[in-house]
Amino acid sequence: MITRSPDLLQSVIPTVANDARDWQTQLAQAIRDPRELVARLGLDNHWLPGANQGHALFEVRVPEAYLARMRPNDPQDPLLRQVLPVTAETDSVVGFVSDPLEEAVHTPRRGLIHKYHGRVLLIASPTCAINCRYCFRRHFPYAENSPSRAQWEETLTYLRRDPSIQEAILSGGDPLASSDKRLAWLVERLGEIPHLRRLRIHTRLPVVIPDRVDDALLAWLQATRLQTVMVLHINHPNEIDAAVVDACTRLRGAGVTLLNQSVLLRGVNDDVETLAALSERLFSAGVLPYYLHVLDPVAGAAHFDVPDSEALTLVDELRTRLAGFLLPRLVREVPGEASKTPL
Ligand code: SF4
């Protein structure tokens, strides 16, 4: 048992908002050791064997700025639960597989997934700033999907030749884990493709390291002719602190439309109070709640699953609590379907 007093813990967990480190340094210094995660939050050592087992399957990664929003000494903290590996990840559960969205069969070029009409998804970075235990890409072969500059040229040629493609979606990993130099180059090239109208960026970085929204990022976002939509990924209202609100304000100032998608997760946000507070806090930060996903059945994440009947009841209750524009759409991604499937 680790016996740190709460006062001592407060002095151990740094307040990154006051720290001048740039985002790259924060990314490089993210916690990657389960022992450190357990110790820094003052958890009992009995969490360690499970944390080590899960870590062996999908490594721990938690930036300090995200850690600072967790409650010390509380293994049920909703942010901690998203990142702490547990023994249940080793369970083999029927229906939970390594590639639940069958992305391997929709990857015609390295780093490119084309499964929806009019949109392509580009794997712009093989890494994330945080490793979410429920991630449907936790087994994705990123090493095979990290394009070189020459392979990016091939991808751009693929896009140029298909005038039905109107939207390029930067995904990952987390696309914003890539350097601004590389992203500025890519987005400039995308902007030269006449039939492309929109750029969509799926990212968790402005949430987990808000300092990622710096002048260099805003510069290329403002320079593109493409309409830009950023889809954030926030599951719990405690993820939205003052630094996240500030990052959202700067993004909106650069003309970026902000949406959010959440995943419905057992033990994290599977109650009406939390989901209602999340929608309210998102809107206060200038972000529209967009999707509430049911869990993709990825191996290692079955303990986060919420049955459909319970999800539907939750959203029905949420509907009575919130203005219509604050109600996210409850959806599932079904392999082979042309769009997300409403429940
Ligand atoms: S940030 Fe997104 S892609 Fe990365 S681990 Fe979390 S859910 Fe997966």
TrEMBL record:
<keyword id="KW-0479">Metal-binding</keyword>
<comment type="similarity">
    <text>Belongs to the radical SAM superfamily. KamA family.</text>
</comment>
<dbReference type="Pfam" id="PF04055">
    <property type="entry name" value="Radical_SAM"/>
</dbReference>
<keyword id="KW-0408">Iron</keyword>
<dbReference type="InterPro" id="IPR013785">
    <property type="entry name" value="Aldolase_TIM"/>
</dbReference>
<dbReference type="InterPro" id="IPR022462">
    <property type="entry name" value="EpmB"/>
</dbReference>
<dbReference type="InterPro" id="IPR003739">
    <property type="entry name" value="Lys_aminomutase/Glu_NH3_mut"/>
</dbReference>
<dbReference type="InterPro" id="IPR058240">
    <property type="entry name" value="rSAM_sf"/>
</dbReference>
<dbReference type="InterPro" id="IPR007197">
    <property type="entry name" value="rSAM"/>
</dbReference>
<keyword id="KW-0004">4Fe-4S</keyword>
<dbReference type="GO" id="GO:0051539">
    <property type="term" value="F:4 iron, 4 sulfur cluster binding"/>
</dbReference>
<dbReference type="GO" id="GO:0016853">
    <property type="term" value="F:isomerase activity"/>
</dbReference>
<dbReference type="GO" id="GO:0046872">
    <property type="term" value="F:metal ion binding"/>
</dbReference>
<feature type="modified residue" description="N6-(pyridoxal phosphate)lysine">
    <location>
        <position position="340"/>
    </location>
</feature>
<keyword id="KW-0411">Iron-sulfur</keyword>
<keyword id="KW-0413">Isomerase</keyword>
<protein>
    <recommendedName>
        <fullName>L-lysine 2,3-aminomutase</fullName>
    </recommendedName>
</protein>
<feature type="binding site">
    <location>
        <position position="128"/>
    </location>
    <ligand>
        <name>[4Fe-4S] cluster</name>
    </ligand>
</feature>
<keyword id="KW-0663">Pyridoxal phosphate</keyword>
<feature type="binding site">
    <location>
        <position position="132"/>
    </location>
    <ligand>
        <name>[4Fe-4S] cluster</name>
    </ligand>
</feature>
<feature type="binding site">
    <location>
        <position position="135"/>
    </location>
    <ligand>
        <name>[4Fe-4S] cluster</name>
    </ligand>
</feature>
<feature type="domain" description="Radical SAM core">
    <location>
        <begin position="114"/>
        <end position="337"/>
    </location>
</feature>
<keyword id="KW-0949">S-adenosyl-L-methionine</keyword>
